[in-house]
Amino acid sequence: MSNTFVIKGTGGERKLHGTVRIAGAKNAALKAIAATVLFRDTVTLTNIPEINDALRMFDLLKDMGGDVSSKKTGSYEVFIPNELATEITPSIAKRMRASVVLTGPVLARYGEVSFPHPGGCVIGARPLDLFVSGFEKMGAKVLMKEDSYVVSAKSGLVGAEIFLKNQSVTVTETFMMAGVLAIGTTVIKNAAMEPEILHLAQFLNKCGAKISGAGTPTITIKGGKLLSAKGHIYKTMPDRIEAGSFLVLGALLARELHITNCNPLHLESPIEILRSAGVAIEIKKTEIIVRAPSHLEPVDIKTHEYPGFPTDLQAPMTVLLTQAEGDSTVFETIFEGRLNYTEELSAMGASITVMDPHRVLVRGKTELHGRKLTSPDLRAGLAFVIAAIVAKGESVIHNVDSTIDRGYEDVESRLRAIGVDIERAEIVPETTAITI
Ligand code: EPZ
User: Fold this and answer.
1) CA of 26 to the centre of ligand 1 (A)
2) What average pLDDT does range 158-168 have in this prediction?
3) Could you tell me the pTM of the whole model?
4) Pocket around ligand 1 at a 6 A CB cut-off
């Protein structure tokens, strides 16, 4: 059986109203779970979103011999013993690319790690070359087998200067964590600057790490001993992608939508772009209030590493552009397969011309019609939910459990609370999605 969403569209009527509370950030929580390997004592992680990816990451630690328990929703205690299996369970790791961040702390603490090459991916090629070359620079030997990697550094990792040819989020986090237990100093140059990286560094520093420069292109890590969480509790930062997605929904259809428990400073680029499309946005310290304008102006968007426009918000924003009056272009610079979902939007009535694998032209405004949709990945999946809410008639979105549920906690209850007609149903699957 597979979960689907059945959504009755609004036909574009601006009637959503109320408050949406933002959950803890998936892409921060997954890294904090991996970071528990750097600790000699029990780490308490709070505000962990109840999503499939977080549960799978805990499963990986348990499979390897870690002790994970939870006494209340969203709160977990993790203890990683001195003996741990160093194979990252292939059946899970193959399906969840984020598991690769475990390699840094496991290799740094135990002197070896093995992991499979992540399987086929629906948003484009997801190479591991930067991981391999970084491990080698830190003195490890990397053996590539048919579909897996075995990495060893029996006498420990040594600090190194690692220049990233592409600014990569998970590579930056992996080497920042590896550097914490390496001998000497590690310098990561052309590091990614996403807020989740700074958030992780701040927690690790409280617990004894010596990381400076996180949030800038050069991060320096002085290696040392295992960290101690004594007196410190990790609280996951708010999910900026979830907040940005609700912002788009509000910009399309809200009489007034309050997005609470978020950090507007993490959303400067999407907010600027929405404002230039004519959207009224009010910003408070941890809240954004959005109202849909009577008409939307077209805008050109280009995804970029932080603080630029996030690739993870590209699909919801493209849905918005189908409702803007005029021509907009969308330039996806990070992943070459991340515009494939636009075919489904065209089938709903959007006018989208694919210019090349990285660019589309969106001609608005077009009426969208409800239909059966198969969600290819979690971000495009939520974009389909937004498109279905905008559309006339009923839409059925398949593959919810293997896509949308991976990244958004109980999204349907939160949507229902602001006036969306959405139900979850179980059906026999027609197709199987590849998870990323
Ligand atoms: C992170 O993925 C996020 N995932 C992604 O979110 C997000 O889309 C992406 O960053 C960009 O912001 C997590 O944090 C778990 P990258 P990541 O390595 O780190 C190239 C979601 O929906 N590259 O920063 O895997 C790569 O091809 C997900 O939540 C190499 O060339 O992405 C890409 O062009 C999807 N060699 C660029 O770097 C490598 O060894 C950026 O990718 C690794 C990456």
Assistant:
1) 14
2) 97
3) 0.95
4) 26-27, 30, 97-98, 125-131, 166, 168-171, 192, 311-312, 334-335, 378-379, 407, 436
